[in-house]
Amino acid sequence: MKKRILCALLALMSALLLAVPALAEGEVTSGQCGENAFWSLDGDETMIISGSGKMDAYPVYNQVYNHQIVTAVIEDGITNVGDHAFFECSNLSDVTIPDSVTAIEDYAFYKCYSLTEFTIPSSVTWIGAFAFFGCKRMTGLTIPEGVAQIGAQAFDDCSHLAIVYIPRSVKSIGWGAFGGCKRITDVYYAGTEEEWQQIEIEGYNGRFTQAKRHYSDSGALAAIHVTVRGEIVQWTDAVPFIDENSRTMVPLRAVADAMGLTVGWDRTERIASFSDGAKTLSFHIGDREARTETGAVVPMDTAAVIVKDRTYAPVRYLAEYFGYAVDWVPAARTVVLR
Predict the structure, then answer these.
(1) Are residues 158 and 253 in the same domain?
(2) Model-level pTM?
(3) Which of 193, 223, 253 finishes a domain?
(4) What pLDDT digit, counting tens, does each position of 265-316 carry?
(5) Distances 68 to 92, 154, 207, 209, 240 between C-alpha atoms, Å
(6) Which of 44, 139, 187, 248 is buried most deeply by CB count within 10 Å?
(7) Residue 78: DSSP 8-state
(8) What is the CA radius of gyration of the chain?
(9) Angle at the Cα of 136 (from 134 to 138), degrees rounded to 5?
């Protein structure tokens, strides 16, 4: 009996290997993924989708290359990101989607753990069920004007999402679309409170529905926000602004506190310094240069300033020096440090 079971298992394994021999050996690096859509692997890490029209569900390339794809480039002419297109592509971190795409189908980016930011083009009107389920490192999300429906569990288990922007075009949000998003603190809605009440929001969206909401007529969308590893920075007597050089200037002490840095101030030299115990970055008020603990110069494209007794400087230089990646979510006017 045991021998028959073992033989059956061996036969099954052989059949599976024979079904995709070339792919398993890495020999096939291009193929068809729709009636007029095609895929090709550029190098070892970049998946390119070209052609026109719709992608098929369950593309063959994802059966073998899903764990090695780092970059995905969908070229103009493709009209959807197909069902399971990048299912469990755990190393996928960079995605380009053209304005020809109108739908992100079910499970399209399911458990793409390395996605930290994502730009959904304004052409998209539909986000399918489980489309971004388990994208745990995403910290901010802007859904473009034009999306009418967000499918069930579309962003479920995106556990680092802190801020979500919802356009007024959204009419329904499916069951659990934001379930498991434990860190959502703020939802920015481009319509009025009355319009928000008209959206059909199904169950299992607790943190999303309980988050602080900001409406377009409240002026909140004009404010600038900063999140540090999923936590929104709370301002007291000073708030960020955009200077004449189009740079986001932040009250450095509040951000430094959120980053766990020690803050120093030399009143005579007018120098603000920030340290994590190993590295230090100092800003001289009025200069377009910051300096490290070794004296190395970090050029900036705008100068540190004092406004109402608070030191302001471009947040990017401070964050990147201490190992943070910096993103800007324009619709929600939010700087994301991750």
Answers:
(1) no
(2) 0.67
(3) 223
(4) 998 999 999 999 999 999 999 999 999 999 999 999 889 998 878 889 888 9
(5) 8, 24, 33, 36, 40
(6) 139
(7) B
(8) 24
(9) 115
